[in-house]
Amino acid sequence: TFTDAAGNSSTVTDTQTYNVDVTAPAAPEIDPVNGTDPITGTAEPGSTVTVTFPDGTTVDVVTDPTTGEWTVPNPGGLVDGDTITAIATDPAGNPSVPGTETVDLTPPNPAGATLTIDDVTADNVLNAAESTGTVTVTGTLTGIP
């Protein structure tokens, strides 16, 4: 209610509706990390992901607004067993719990793997005529975990 200098009064009302977002996004997913490839993952579409490296440096990246995919450069110097951490912050400012991924620099262990090569020709010997043509070599790899 308000009253003017002449004593006239009136009441004015207005209604506003607000949506308050206090829901944190899910933790970002971080794809497997090696020593050289970019660090990639997914988070809530349109959120900002803060990636923290083992040395404490951080990189912020905005996710794709449709897929939620994100990519940051690999800083190099990562050591096997290091942990990469990512936190997504949605447009309302709500941070997620951290997502983590352990750096894996260990190559696959070929122990126990067996490569069996199929016969190259009917007699498994290339003669002069066969050696001038295209030879296809096939085989089977087994024992890979």
From TrEMBL:
Ranges for region Disordered: 40-59
Superkingdom field: Bacteria
Record InterPro entries: Big_6, Ig-like_fold
Record field: compositional bias (Low complexity): 48-59
One Pfam family hit: Big_6
Annotated ranges, domain Bacterial Ig: 24-103
NCBIfam families listed in its UniProt record: Ca_tandemer
Protein name in the entry: Bacterial Ig domain-containing protein
Organism encoding this protein: Acinetobacter vivianii
